[in-house]
Amino acid sequence: MHGNGALTAVRTSLSEQLATLRGVAVGALPESLLAIALREVAGVHLLLPADWEALRHDEGAAGRPIPYWARPWPSGIALAEALAAAPPPEGARVIELGCGLAAPSIVAARAGAAVLATDGATDAVAFAAHSFALNQAVAEVAHADWAEHGDELAARGPFDLVLAADVLYTAQNADAAVRLLPQLLARNGEVLLADPGRTNARRFLSAARAVFALDSRAAGAVTLYTLRPK
Asked: How is the beta sheet containing 114-119 ordered, strand by strand?
């Protein structure tokens, strides 16, 4: 499944999708975006750029944003591992905000959940879609910046489970999350949020306590928060 021939085919398909989403020719894509590798996280395979530092350099030189989506961060790993240990029920409606490489979403989809994985970066959407296919997991992947397109995402709900890993890195995101999460959740739904100790997580948690009951537990350097509507 994951031999050199398979990865070559994936690279060809991926390059075409990346170019389409960027609106450029395949030849205009940086090689650092197309040099791909596989990494296992929480029992699933993630397709990702092989050299993140090279990709960051190339994207910066081209005036594009830092590709934070392109590597597995501790919060995403912790969230995926938590879901692998306690997966959502089959058929549960799940959305992930800022999915990046989408490890938590893939774990949830493998468990039989109906998953919508979203990210504001088109490159992340392309890589995540291919990772779902590599794991033989069925899900929808959408290009959506949750802080900007909250109303559109809420219209797709309600969701039984909202997943978010390390999304509270700005005050604007913290405030947007307080507004959006209640709109996304089903009556008995819950949010599972992983955070590595961002300053703005405190801002979010302070405001969220008005509408959510909160539980937390440590997962190494990451804290996993479960939020349920009061």
From this structure: 140-143, 114-119, 93-97, 159-165, 185-195, 222-229, 212-219
pLDDT single digits (tens) 80-123? 999 999 999 999 999 999 999 999 999 999 999 999 999 999 99
CA nearest to 114, candidates 146, 141, 78: 141
pLDDT confidence of residue 147: 86
- The structure's pTM equals 0.94
Sign (positive/negative) of CA torsion 84, 87, 93, 98? negative
Strands of the chain (E only): list them.
36-41, 44-49, 93-97, 114-119, 140-143, 159-165, 185-195, 212-219, 222-229
Q: Which amino acid is at 139?
A: A
Cα 62 off chain centre by: 24
Strand partners, 87: none
Residue ranges of domains in the chain, CATH in brackets = 4-68 (no CATH), 74-229 (3.40.50.150)
Backbone angles phi, psi at 214, to 5 degrees: -115, 135
Low-confidence ranges of the chain (pLDDT < 50): 1
Residue 95 sits at the vertex; the CA angle it makes with 51 and 80, to the nearest 5 degrees, is 50
Q: According to the model, what pLDDT value does residue 6 have?
A: 61
Task: Using alpha carbons, select from 230, 118, 213 the residue that is nearest to residue 165.
Answer: 118
Sign of CA dihedral 40, 29, 18, 4: negative
